[in-house]
Design the sequence.
């Protein structure tokens, strides 16, 4: 499967279906799984032995046999139950380890897969929905293992035990048991069937609610600024209600659980049958006690499977949702064997067409060439495709037709990491992580020393304001009120670029909405940064446009004109219009 990034491959994982996926994870923890099954088996066996001892004791009393036999029975009960609790401990411990390991591994696997998805994928996935899958759906897989499968295996043993013990009391007594089993299997089948769909809805509605919640928190400033809290509360309430309704629906199905009725029936028919056989002299009084004890064992599976099957359905639905992400096609491939070389910095577009969506083309027939070391300005109205052009250079998105070449090599033939690590794009919206200032600057080069970080910050005109923070470079951004202005963010981003020392630097509208004092700083920083590398400036600033070696005018996704400043002033109406507008 193509991915932009593969940290590790999970070779033994099977993505063909949810059950294969679950099994491929279960298989990894053989020892724990075995302990779980062994513990479950011995628990049932040693529980089944109890009524047998009780039955013998009854007969000893009724038939006036020596009381020393009772003492032996007591000793046997104590020993057997001690062994049982020891094994129970091992089983519960093993099943917890088993389930937690699976949760951990699946989350890891999903995260790696998410990092490898293309921007096209992420553009259409609400963050909250993804968060719900990485946190809750993965968690459901944990619960599916423990208590889910753990109790199902355990209770299956409880169901099977009477099959072994009852014939030793009287073969005919198997009749009620077998009747119970047949109807139990049918009832469980329909129960699981009806749970499956609801479990999917429960998980789905939860994901939707999470997506809404995340979005509202992200846009909290807008909500507050427009005083829309009451309306947004109502909107979210609808999603919250949907989650409740699906859970209630699940509860409804659980409440109609028929197996409890079957349990009552098997106890009645079983007792009547045993009493009849006793009347006939076929069994002894103690046998009735042992037999009823065996039927009592069925209570455990019947009651636990109300929620264990529900848990399994939920985990299965979670696994389905996780697989949906892992299996989602992503067209970009990290292209490990691709072209890998130090970059010179030439860029050329040959009749490039591109659209984010298949039915809406954003760039049409774009052709241009940029020489290594040139500074190029791209101008044009908002929405004309300037940022898009930048993103095609480092293959953030893949074009639909034509070719994009860097150093004469098609970007599709470049090793993706080599391509991207030598091109820096400073976005319009600069994203900073809530880590220290130093960590943010060295993001693209984690091994940079403090001296190197400071040097980069100096060149980016950022050192001064960083030092004005209480903890300087160790200040954590986003904490204790440390937020940065747009201009400061840009300078941090430029410092970041100094450190990674890319061959191609692209600055996207990075000086808009900044006062002139700050602009001066940024201008200096950009000039320093542009030295010795190919630089693309997406800008409205005349000072930058004039200064560029080459100017490209974009209009509605087409190149309207290109050339030098003087050249364009003479030949291009579109260009003159931009200038006239600015000079006014
Ligand atoms: P500019 O940077 O010149 O303002 P953009 O390159 O950002 O313009 O956008 C060009 C066109 O592409 C616009 O019509 C915009 O709506 C569309 N567009 C931009 N980003 C996306 C995206 N991630 N998904 C879909 N359409 C997009
Ligand atoms: Mg833009």
Sequence:
């Amino acid at each position: 499967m193509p991915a932009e990034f593969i940290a590790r491959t999970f070779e033994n994982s099977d993505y063909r279906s949810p059950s294969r996926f679950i099994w491929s994870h279960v298989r990894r923890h053989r020892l724990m799984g075995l302990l779980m099954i062994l513990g479950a088996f011995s628990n049932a066996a040693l529980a089944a032995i109890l009524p047998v001892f009780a039955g013998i004791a009854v007969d000893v009393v009724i038939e006036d046999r020596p009381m020393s036999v009772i003492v032996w029975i007591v000793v046997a009960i104590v020993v057997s139950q001690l062994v049982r609790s020891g094994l129970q401990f091992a089983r519960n411990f093993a099943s917890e380890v088993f389930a937690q390991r699976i949760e951990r591994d699946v989350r890891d696997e999903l995260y790696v897969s998410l990092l490898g998805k293309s921007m096209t994928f992420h553009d259409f996935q609400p963050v909250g929905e993804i968060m719900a899958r990485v946190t809750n759906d993965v968690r459901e897989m944990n619960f599916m293992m423990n208590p889910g499968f753990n109790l199902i295996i355990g209770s299956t043993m409880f169901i099977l035990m009477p099959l072994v013990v009852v014939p030793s009391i009287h073969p005919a007594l198997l009749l009620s048991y077998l009747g119970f089993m047949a109807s139990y299997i049918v009832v469980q089948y329909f129960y699981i069937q009806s749970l499956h769909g609801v479990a999917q809805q429960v998980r789905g509605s939860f994901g939707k609610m999470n997506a809404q919640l995340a979005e509202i928190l992200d846009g909290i400033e807008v909500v507050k600024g427009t005083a829309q809290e009451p309306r947004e509360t109502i909107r979210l309430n609808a999603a919250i209600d949907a989650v409740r309704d699906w859970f209630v629906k699940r509860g409804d199905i659980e409440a109609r659980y028929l197996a409890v009725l079957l349990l009552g029936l098997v106890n009645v028919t079983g007792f009547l049958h045993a009493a009849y056989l006793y009347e006939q002299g076929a069994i002894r009084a103690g046998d009735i006690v042992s037999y009823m004890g065996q039927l009592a064992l069925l209570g455990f599976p019947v009651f636990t499977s109300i929620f264990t099957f529900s848990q399994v359905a939920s985990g299965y639905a979670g696994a389905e949702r996780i697989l949906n992400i892992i299996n989602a096609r992503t067209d970009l491939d990290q292209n490990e064997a691709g072209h890998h070389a130090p970059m010179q910095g030439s860029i050329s577009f040959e009749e490039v067409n591109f659209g984010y969506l298949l039915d809406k083309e954003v760039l049409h027939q774009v052709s241009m060439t940029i020489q290594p070391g040139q500074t190029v300005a791209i101008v044009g109205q908002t929405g004309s495709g300037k940022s898009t052009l930048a993103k095609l250079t480092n293959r953030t998105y893949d074009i639909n037709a034509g070719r994009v070449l860097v150093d004469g090599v098609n970007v599709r033939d470049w090793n993706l990491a080599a391509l991207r690590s030598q091109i820096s794009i400073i976005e319009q919206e600069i994203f900073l992580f809530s880590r220290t200032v130093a960590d943010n600057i060295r993001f693209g080069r984690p091994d940079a020393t403090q001296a190197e970080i400071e040097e980069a910050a100096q060149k980016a005109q950022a050192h001064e304001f960083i030092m004005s923070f209480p903890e300087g470079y160790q200040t954590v951004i986003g904490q204790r009120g440390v937020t940065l202005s747009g201009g400061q963010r840009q300078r941090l981003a430029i410092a970041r670029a100094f450190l990674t020392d890319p061959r191609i630097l692209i600055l996207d509208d990075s000086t808009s909405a900044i006062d002139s004092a700050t602009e001066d700083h940024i201008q200096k920083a950009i000039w320093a940064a542009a030295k010795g590398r190919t630089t693309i400036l997406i800008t409205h600033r005349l000072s930058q446009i004039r200064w560029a070696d080459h100017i490209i005018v974009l209009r509605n996704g087409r190149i309207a004109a290109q050339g030098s400043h003087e050249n364009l002033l003479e030949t291009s109406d579109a260009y003159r219009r931009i200038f006239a507008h600015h000079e006014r």
User: Anything to note?
Assistant: The chain has 21 helices and ten strands.
